[in-house]
Write a structure and sequence with these properties.
The protein is of the alpha+beta class and 315 residues long. The protein has helices spanning 18-36, 50-56, 83-92, 136-152, 165-175, 179-190, 194-201, 208-215, 225-232, 236-254; strands at residues 40-41, 47-49, 67-69, 75-78, 101-110, 122-131, 158-164, 220-221, 261-264, 277-283, 291-295, 309-314. The chain is 38% helix and 20% strand.
Length: 315
């Protein structure tokens, strides 16, 4: 018998009995938490036009998307991301909604993966999006929902690492490199590739921006790492982002979450997507981040309506 007739595609697996019960128990706990905080459920199609994602994020890796061609010949994709379709809906379907609007989802995400990396090609993601609100209170609302969602699952050894997109953007623009070099530097910071990062930044000598970029992968820890950035650069935009992170950290501490927050200024993923805070959540026993989110104020505008927004997704 052909093995492809009886196995599942790369990155997918069957869930049986106890695994199903555990999954549904976790899902229901997070659902109840988000609904209690005023978030309403939304469901988007499992298949969307490719153009929706290409328009929202031109840098999105095409190779990671599962493509389908419909009867009219248009390219569609199995949903690789939940936030982008919700931004599409917010910009095109919620004209009469009073802002801000709180939305949540519980639906699968699909990716094309190679068999030798061990990555999932299909997984359930639960997330929340706060559309039409900006600033400290909005970010605190989102992060509080993320903390309480994780706590509702029974996990007691989790943390969230917090960064800000403006820090890298301001430094790289001041350095004056082209888009290709900027992306190379971003990836090296994200991957904490210290030696390669040093080689790329070496031609810029003692420029403060280069020194700050080289230090970014190491700027991880408590709120004291923000002091280190202020020593490295006087860039006004960077200092503004640092000041905001201080205020947000203080607000989270006062809300009782301070002991579960770390600052990670090497958090520079998908920079065209995020416009403000970025964060990732980790839990003991999981080998990778189980939560990611941030502020993406420019996303809804790509679908015709300029609205601030932020949110997170839990894998």
């Amino acid at each position: 018998m052909n093995r492809y007739n009886i196995s599942t595609p790369e990155g997918t697996r069957d869930l049986l009995f106890a695994s199903c019960r555990a999954l549904r128990s976790t899902e229901n706990a997070i659902r109840e938490t988000l609904e209690r905080k005023g978030y309403s459920e939304i469901i988007t199609p499992a298949v969307e036009y490719y153009d929706v994602f290409a328009q929202a994020n031109p840098e999105l890796d095409q190779e990671s998307m599962l493509k389908i061609v419909d009867k009219s010949g248009r390219i569609c994709v199995a949903r690789p991301d939940n936030t982008t379709p919700i931004a599409r809906i917010a910009a095109t379907r919620l004209d009469d909604a009073a802002l801000p609007v709180r939305l949540y989802y519980s639906q699968k995400v699909f990716r094309s993966v190679s068999g030798d990396h061990g990555h999932k090609g299909e997984f359930l993601q639960i997330g929340a999006e706060l559309i039409g609100a900006d600033g400290l209170h909005a970010d605190l609302d989102i992060l509080s929902a993320a903390f309480e969602a994780l706590r509702s699952t029974g996990a007691d050894n989790f943390r969230i690492e917090l960064g800000h997109a403006e820090i890298y953007k301001a430094l790289i623009e001041a350095l004056g490199v082209d888009a290709a070099a900027a992306e190379s530097i971003r990836r090296l910071i994200e991957n904490k590739s210290f030696a390669a990062l040093g080689d790329v930044l070496a031609p810029f000598g003692s420029k403060p921006e280069a020194k700050a970029l080289y230090a970014m992968p190491q700027l991880f820890g408590g709120v004291e790492v923000l002091d280190e950035v202020e020593v490295l650069t006087g860039n006004v935009r960077v200092l503004g982002a640092i000041s905001y992170l201080r205020r947000l950290y203080k607000a989270l501490d006062e809300a009782g979450f301070g002991g579960m927050v770390m600052i990670d200024l090497g958090l520079v993923h998908e920079m065209d997507y995020y416009t403000g805070i970025m964060f990732r959540g980790y839990c003991g026993g999981a080998g990778a981040a189980i939560l990611s989110g941030g502020r993406y104020n420019a996303l809804c505008a790509k679908f015709g309506k300029d609205m601030p927004a932020g949110g997170f997704g839990i894998d």
